Amino acid sequence: MHAIGCSEWSGYVHNWGDWVGWLVELGWLAGWVGLVGLVGLVGLAG
Question: Per-residue pLDDT tens for 2-26?
């Protein structure tokens, strides 16, 4: 069984953290775009 070294492990964790951070940013952006779009749509329809 291959044991993961400390540097290897921290590299994986760092990459995972970058992915999560990127997804969170994308989620916030998508949420704001959706919210603004919804408000605009309601404003136009109303």
Answer: 666 677 767 777 788 888 999 999 9
Please state the φ and ψ torsions of residue 3, each to the nearest 5 degrees: -85, 135
In eight-state DSSP terms, residue 2 is P
Q: What is the pTM of this model?
A: 0.53
Structure tokens at 23: 């997804």
Q: Which two tokens stand for residue 22?
A: 């990127």
Q: Which residues of 18-46 are buried (b: 16+ CB within 10 A; e: fewer)?
A: eeeeeeeeeeeeeeeeeeeeeeeeeeeee
Q: What is the pLDDT of residue 5?
A: 66
